[in-house]
What does this fold into?
Amino acid sequence: MTFRCLRKRLRKILLSNKLNITNFDLRFYGDFLLIKYSKNKMADIIETNHDNQEEFYKSLKEKLESQHNFPEEYLFKFIVPGDSEKITEILRVFDGLKYTLSNRESSKGKYTSVSLQCFVMDADQVIDIYQQVAKIENVMML
It folds into this structure.
């Protein structure tokens, strides 16, 4: 089996929705194959069903606290229509916070992915940011 074929098969498995893996890299070291991957923690958190918003945010807080060591740098990801106004609205939520912004436009320019690496003090601050961004129309939170 060629490296290309192996990579294609592993990509299909690793990027399936059930594993919540967002990125992976394959490297050969002699006879060994190293698979380095990153898992989307937010997908694990959001997958569970909740009857109401209060229950959802309580569950989100518990999971954030169990998976993160606050205070720390936290990665927020959003997808917005190819409209710079939406990005400006998102950035207003982060006013007064220390963050690093990166964004990438889709191939057809219809959408833009926005990533903000932000220093947060605790899970409550993360939830507050998500709640503020949720008020912005047409923004998908990842």
Summary: The chain is about 40% helix and 30% strand. Residues 26 and 32 are 10 Å apart (CA to CA).
